[in-house]
Each structure stands twice: as C-alpha cells, then as structure tokens.
Amino acid sequence: MKELQYLNKYFVKYKYRFLLGIVITIVAQIFRLFTPKLISKSFKAIEDFHKNNISNEIIKSQLIENILLIVGTTIIAGILTFLMRQTLIVMSRHIEFDLKNEVFKHYEVLDQNFYKQNRTGDLMSRISEDVAKVRMYVGPAVMYTINTLITFTIVIIYMYNVSPRLTLYTLLPLPILSFIIFKLSVEINKRSTIFQQYLSKISSYTQEVFSGIRVIKAYGLEKQHQNNIIDLAKESKSKSMSLANVQSFFGPLMVTLIGVSNLVVIYFGGMMYINGEIDSIGKIAEFILYVNMLTWPVATIGWVSSLVQEAEASQKRLNEFLKVEPEIKNTNPNHSIIKGEIEFKNVSFTYDDTNIEALKNVSFKVAKGQTLAILGKTGSGKSSILTLITRMHDVKVGKILMDGTPLAELNLYDLRNSIGIVPQDAFLFSDSIKNNIKFGKENATDEEVFEAARKSVVHDNIIQFNQQYETILGERGITLSGGQKQRVSIARAIIKNPEILLFDDCLSAVDTETEEQILNNLLEVSKDKTTIIVSHRVSSAKNADIIIILEEGKIIQQGSHNQLVNQEGYYKELYYKQLSEKEVE
C-alpha cells in the first residue's frame, strides 16, 4: 500500500467526517451484538421454564420483552449502518472530487514536452478509470475494513467472555485464511496493473480513431481499424478474465471457511454442553450467531483486498504523473506589469524531443506598439519564436527580454494573460460559436462578441447559420471550414484586448480579398499593441514596422518592406512571385 500513502492527506482533510464514521460504526456494531445475547437469554429462559416450572405468564413476558429488544436494537443498528455509509461513502466522493481536480490542475501546469510524450487517451484514462478505482479504496474498502476490524474486535471479546476455549476452536481457520488472502492479493495487484494498462491503450487508440475519423473514412480504412480495436479488446478481455479468475476464489473460500467454523462450533460446543462445560444450549446458538455475524465481514476481506490492490495499481499510475515536475515554472509570485517590448538576444533553441535546432543566434527587438512580421520557408523556425515568447519552452542559450526583464523572472500567468495568440492550427471547443469567441474574455457582452467577429470578417458567415452565434460546433470546430475556424480564432484574440498579439500563419486558409479586409482591421486593432505576424505571404507582412526572414533558424534578412523589396534576396523574390500570381488570378 506504499503508493496509497499519497491519499493520507485527504483523510486528514476530512478527519472529522472520518472519525464520526468510525464512532458510528462502533455504536452500530454494539447494537447488533444485542441480538445474540438476547437470543441466548431466550433459550436460557425456555430451559429454566422446563427445569424449574416457571409460569407461562413469566416466560411469555420475558420472551416478548426479548423480541421487542431484538427488533428495537436491530432497527437502531440499521439506522446507524445507514448513517455510517452516508458518512464514509460521501467522504469518498469528496476525495474523488478533490483528486480529479488535483490531477487536472497538475495536467494544466505540465509543459509541452509532457504532452508530446504521452497520449491523450492515457491521460483521460488516468483521470477517470484510475481515479474511480482509487475512490473504491477510500470509500467502500476503507468503510468495510473499519467495519470488519470493529466487528471482529467486539465479537471476539463477546465470544471470549462466553467461552475462551470454544473461541479458540472457532478462530483456528483464520491463519489459513490470512495466508491465502496474502498470496491472492499479490497476484491481483500484478494482474490489475496489467489490466489498467490495457484499458489505457484502448482509450488512447479509440480517442485517436474518433479524432481522425474523417481521414480514416477518406482512405477507406474502417475495416483495418475495426480489426485493430477488436484485437485490443480481446487482449483487454483476456487480462480482465485473468484478473476475475483470481478474484473468484475469494467468495467460495470465505463461505467454506465460515461453514467450517460453524461446524466447529456445533461439534465442540455440543461436546462441551454434554460434558457440562457450557451451562446452556443458548450459548451454542449465541456462538453460531456470532460466527455468522463474522460471515459478511470475512467475506468482504477478499473483495476489499481486491479493491485495495486495484487502487494501489491505479494510484501508482496517477503518482507517476503527479510526481512529474513541470519544466516551465512560475518563479515570480508577485504581479508583473507587461507593456510589450520584446527583445531576443543571441537566442538559440533546440527541441529536446527531436534534438532539432530550431533557432540559431537570433536577435531582434520590437518596441511597444510596433509590428514585427516573420517570413520564411516551412521549418525555418517561425513558430518557435512565438512559443518562446509565450514561455511554452525556455531557452538555454541567449536571452529573451520583456520590457527589459528576462521572461523567466516575470510572473508566468501575468505574461500569458497579456498575450493574445492565434495558433497555426486553429483549435475550437465543442461549444457555441459565441462561447468560443468569449474564451478570450469570459465576461464579454454580446455586442463585444459581434464587434470582434466583424473585425475578423466572420460575422456575415455566422449569421447565416440557423442558430447563428448559438451554433454548437463539432469536436475541434469541425462544423466550420478552415478559413472560418481561423477567423473565429482571430476574433477570440481580438476580444481579449491584450498588450501583445501573436498571429501564427492564421490567414493561410483565407482568400486574398478576405485577408486584405482582416489585415486592414488589424491595423486599427493593433494600435499601441505589440504585434507579431508569422506568415508565408508578403501581403500579411508589408505593413509591418520590421520584417525578418528566417532560413534554417537563422535571420538572413531584416528591415522594412521598402528596404527589403529593394535588395536582392528571399523577400524580393517572394514579393514579385506572389505579385505575379495575384495578377494571373
């Protein structure tokens, strides 16, 4: 249970609810133990009636009194058992809620490299399937463990008071039971870990298939992927059956051992009664009831042991991620005021996962309110500059300054809140168009949403939909075309009204006429804002204050449009090439 020690902080957090549950459990068990005593007294009364010729009225009165006490104590025990479940099981739901939030919050602070190395389906499986397994430990497993321990303790004390010798005979099978449970638990832990891993594989694979269903259909590969998922399901079924085979030993084993204990009580108790060591047959009945009171707690030992082992395996998988330290950390807890001056000083950057050097000795400066355009071939390092500005990665060679301060020394959240970014791959949520735009500013009014959509030249498209701004988009915005998704993403950045605007080739799916309208609107929007535009088109860059050309991570040209168009090089060639293409159109 080493991995499950991580959850102890939650037991401390809910200690009052936890302790209350234990107290209720103890009281409930005490009330349950009135029944065997009262039944024993009833048997004794009947025996005394035959031996001592006690009147019918007296014996009837005693029996009725015992029956009423049995009914009353049973009802109270039932109510207390209900309250026990309400206390401890509800506690497990609170812990499940907290643990899911903790896992999700940790996912949010982890860096890009983590998400490159781990599959989405596996992350989803851990926060859903694994947390659910852990909840079964902090809820039912803990509750039944407490219940079993208290029941065993109290019942054995009562049994010992009745007959120490008969108690010893009754408990003889327990060491055998303990050894078998230990061996089975070890095996369950192994098989449960393997089964959870296969569940993650299925989740990851199906998530990827559903996300890429259009490509799969376009290539006619449905049958192949169906066969793949069937193979994974068969493997998962095999591991599940292997786990179930071990778990299935518990039930029959418990029942058998309890049955043996009953036979021991009847045989040895009977012999002791015959020999006069027990003064009443009611003591044997009382003992049998005690043994049967132990039946359910003992029977749950196997189930609880299985739950604990499964939770151990799941918590181990959760701990693997919870112990991962994010590479990008907020080193400044104080508030940082961001104005928008950006400077790169001899920055070189290599991606750890691919070992590709994306930038080589890059230097430039953009003053607050200026616009920088970055052009270059695919893979030249344009997008890498934007990811470094947003601190999705940290540089090890060179410096990046924001208002003269190194990025790592600024408050990370203030830095990112001051930036509005439109990524190359426009990501929209499965929500309404209005809420997707308001993602940039949650408290935005409808008029602000409409104005942002007009500036990104998507308003006219939206109002043609049946539900207009309330139109619910499919996963990743699949309802919209590529150009529409890009323009909604631009509206999301505009409505945020940040100090810095970053556009990562966000007009690639837009026609030149619409691009011209958007660029004219952005000139107005970006006044007094630092703006960086990454593009393949000269038309997107020509109005920028500074233009840099990247090639294989190096700056090969730098200047204004007029300067670059009048010097030989990549920019001039690209300008005349795109100009001639436009004339042909």
Describe this structure in words.
- With 585 residues, the chain is of the alpha/beta class.
- It has two domains: 3-201 and 239-322, ABC transporter type 1, transmembrane domain (ABC transporter transmembrane region fold, Up-down Bundle); 342-584, 3-Layer(aba) Sandwich (Rossmann fold).
- It is built from 23 helices and ten strands.
- The chain has helices at residues 8-13, 15-32, 34-52, 56-109, 112-117, 120-162, 164-171, 174-211, 213-218, 222-247, 250-274, 281-293, 295-322, 382-389, 412-417, 433-438, 446-455, 459-462, 482-496, 512-525, 538-541, 561-565, 570-584, and strands at 342-350, 357-366, 371-376, 397-402, 405-406, 419-422, 500-504, 530-535, 546-551, 554-559.
- A six-stranded mixed sheet has the order 6-7-8-3-9-10, sandwiched between helices.
- Strand 1 (342-350) and strand 2 (357-366) form a beta hairpin.
- Helix 2 packs antiparallel against helix 4 (56-109).
- The longest helix has 54 residues, at 56-109.
